[in-house]
Amino acid sequence: MRFTWRPTFKALPGICQVCHAWPADPVCTDCRQRLAIPRRRCERCAAPLPGNQTQCGACLVDPDALTRCVAAVDYAYPWDRLIARFKFEGEPAWAHSLARLMADAPGAVDLWLGCDGVVPIPLTVTRLAERGYNQSWELAKALRRLAGDVPAPWPQALVRLGQAPDQHRLSRGQRLNNLSGAFAARPAMVSRLAGARVLLIDDVSTTGATLRAAARALRQAGASQVSALVLARTPMDAIPAA
Fold first, then answer.
1. Count of CB atoms within 10 A of residue 222's CB?
2. Is the pTM here over 0.70, yes or no?
């Protein structure tokens, strides 16, 4: 006898975890339209920008290996709480709803149509063992399910070296120095990375240090271009300076 609980379960109505509307998706359409409002961002690091600027001052002064970055939302209410549930509270099923925000972000489609492979930011072995899953890898898989034209992920392209402290526990200055030499391309992937246009996937970018470190490792392995698509970008005034 075959059980049919899975399609039935998927069809059951739920409650929006933001406004508590019922029946609704975990984040309802009204909340996505009301709270995931596109805003002007730096084209290289996705930091929110005033006026008609295209790059922030930091990226103008010190451009790096990352060509472009698109962020879906600010790391602020209500997304910060939902990301915490996804990332720290053992709720990987949030990947689908959060990846939908990424897929809808202005410029996201251009990023994945212009790349050869998608690389999720890896965790250290210790962090992966503690968490049980890599949230960036979960987002990359969900993006491909949502949009069939997203290139196949290359989850083994990068390896994270050492055991540096978690970025979310550090100040801005510490974050910028914490990830020097933190990533390397796996030798088995070097031939595939040679000349490739790579799209990095991550959940949160705070200062951009993680993305820049990963981009440098990919460029050193021969990638011709590295861009990034992230779920959330922390506003600059929310990052501790000391």
1. 15
2. yes
